[in-house]
Amino acid sequence: MQKVVVLGTGPAGLTAAIYLARANMNPLVIEGNEPGGQLTLTTEVENFPGFPEGIMGPELMQNMRKQAERFGATFQRGWVTKADLTKRPFTLTIDGSEQIQTETLIVSTGASAKLLEIPGEKENIGRGVSTCATCDGFFFRGKKVIIVGGGDSAMEEANFLTRFATEVRVVHRRSELRASKIMQDRARKNPKITWSLNCTPIEVIAGEKGVTGLKVKHNDTGTEEIIETEGIFVAIGHRPNTAFLQGQIKTDETGYIVV
Ligand code: NAP
């Protein structure tokens, strides 16, 4: 029986693990399919306090993990498929079979990338469709790519992709971007970034060798266009990983736990 289990190894989970370990609570930290969380998928982190020159996302997460380990947190790889929170101690089912009981549970499972849910998208993941520019950008050296989204992630990834691609076209469903001013300005100043605003993606077009284009609808005129591209990076936000709680904890309409 565990005193406390932490689910997730993103910044929230590792911060909890550091504090628990330093309080002699011997936390067990369950590490899922994306160890280190979303920051491991990013490049430079400029706004984490304490790093005036910035720090690379994966390095920041490695440091946090080492810090938790230093004070005695233990780590186990696995995916929680079920959690029974109806009686104490709580019971967690890991990878469908192993069971762990714990007096206290800290849920810091973060979120996973959202998809557009349009025809041609899912079947072409890994064939030109990606949700991770830092992981896959390298494969698009000398090619034209599209990034879908108008938030900070889309701006950051668009800039990053210009290291490899000849042109990065931002496709966004509204005429205004959601991204912060500093990120917008940086993207707008980049001569390799072009813009298709007020355009809704409606279909991923692909052939035998993978993606060849993205069909979009111009919202003002209703006309459709196929933008030629070999890579489509989807950067439209994230969905919380709370499905395993199966309604045992109050969540908002998007699935985030109400705290
Ligand atoms: P976000 O801010 O939620 O932006 C998501 C973007 O995707 C929005 O522009 C949204 O359009 C669009 N979108 C959502 N669903 C869509 C759909 N089904 N079809 C087409 N477009 C869709 O997500 P994010 O950019 O991942 O950022 C998440 C958080 O992390 C934000 O708070 C952001 O500031 C932060 N962040 C910060 C940095 C940084 O360097 N400071 C970097 C990355 C992220 P609408 O605008 O029309 O809703």
UniProtKB/TrEMBL annotation:
It comes from Brevibacillus fulvus. It is an enzyme of class 1 (oxidoreductase). Pfam families: Pyr_redox_2. Residues 3-259 form the FAD/NAD(P)-binding domain. It comes from the Bacteria. This is Thioredoxin reductase (NADPH). Homodimer. The keyword Disulfide bond applies. GO terms for molecular function: thioredoxin-disulfide reductase (NADPH) activity. Its cofactor is FAD. Its EC number is 1.8.1.9. Keywords: Disulfide bond, FAD, Flavoprotein, Oxidoreductase, Redox-active center.
